[in-house]
Amino acid sequence: MRVLEILGSLHRGGAETMIMNYYRAFDKNLCQMDFVIHAEFEDDYRDEAKSQGANIILVDRPGEVGAFKYIHILAEAIKNNGPYDAVHIHTNYQAFLGVLAARKAGIKNIIVHSHTTVFTKEQLLINRAVFRLFKVKKLSCGKLAGDAFFGSNYTIINNAIPVSGFKLANENRIRLVRDQFVGRKIIGHLGSFTKTKNHVFMLGVMEKIQKRDSSICLLLFGEGALKDEIEKQIANRGLNGCVYLMGVTNDPSTAYHVMDLFLLPSLYEGFPVTLVEAQLSGTYSLASDSISKECDIGASRIEFLELNEELWADRILSLTVSPVNGNEADINIDDYDVNKQWRNLYNIYKNVSA
User: Fold this and answer.
1) Hey, is 76 helix, strand or coil?
2) Considering the chain, what is the average pLDDT of its residues?
3) How crowded is residue 183: how many other Cβ atoms within 10 Å of its Cβ?
4) Which end of the chain has fewer beta carbons closer than 10 Å to its terminal beta carbon, N or C?
5) What does the buried/exposed string (b/e) look like for 128-138 if buried means 16 or more CB atoms within 10 Å of the residue's CB?
6) 162 burial class (0-12, 13-18, 19+ CB within 10 angstroms)?
7) Which residues lie closer than 8 Å to 244 by C-beta, 6 or more apart?
8) Residue among 114, 128, 4 nearest 56 (CA)
């Protein structure tokens, strides 16, 4: 079986990390994936995907060539690189364009996956109309994202991870990072530098924290369009000695184990895989109250706060003095282990109705 995944890029975003986790776990004798991406630069996962047998297909963005030409280009790419048994679309707002292109290319098994919770009325109107017309299979990372995009009649596929790799980190790698911050309490964030991730809010929180405890430092892992702007703000706010840009990490498990506390003050999210990773790594998390409470996997290692800088500063200071260890007794680890969950997605690829 061959399946085509349509994504914006192969950077370390939520949707990209989710599908790469599943791709690694898949039995390649049963199913092979190819990837359509729209980015014109080297992506974090591109080389890895190619090394596992994936074909990477680069097409122009819809905004660059227009909707009708994009549908034609994508349909030709599907036909020329196929045949495919299914097309799995992750480009939320523009998903309907992928559906139209897949149908034009003769694909009957079309899957659309919701990874976020915020859509305009216009986006919902056109997407839902196309989904109904072509009877696409609807998947979501969680209930909040599914309700927001589809309204009803969708299947949740957990944002699963390789659990063992996050529970058991390499002590030497952890020590190498921690040795750079001896005597410091480390809070951290892992995510792309985008407006949604709310880095500006974290800088405001750090300004308040530094007035009360200068031993606390913030490590920001990731890249993205707003990184240069955040770097300027760090300097302008006088935070160079306590906020550090760590770049993209190929070892997120070590990053979580280094942190005393993980922060995710996003403006909105679907079901962020970083919160699953952090909790299963044993790291306590503070998350925005705009994020679905589904992200609490039952490890007693997460709380949701409204986006108020003073509130976050107070809670961070409290937690770095009295850490919370959590308890995994009530978690069904298999629900979040991609090595146990990959067959659910595989069966959907096999059983999609025409």
Assistant:
1) helix
2) 93
3) 5
4) C
5) bebbeebebbb
6) middle
7) 217, 218, 219, 220
8) 4
- The one-letter amino acid code at 55 reads N
Comparing C-alpha atoms, which of 190, 179, 218 is closest to residue 278? 190
Query: 270-290: per-residue pLDDT in tens?
Result: 899 999 999 999 999 999 999
- Tell me: the pLDDT tens digits for 131-178? 999 999 999 999 999 999 999 999 999 999 999 888 878 899 999 999
Which residues partner with 303 through β-bridges?
286
Sole residue written with tokens 């839902």: 128
**Helices H / strands E in the chain, number of each:** 15, 13
Please check the confidence at residue 52 and state whether its pLDDT lies above 50.
Answer: yes
Rounded CA-CA distance 101/98 in Å is 5
Query: What stretch of H or E contains 263?
Result: strand 261-264
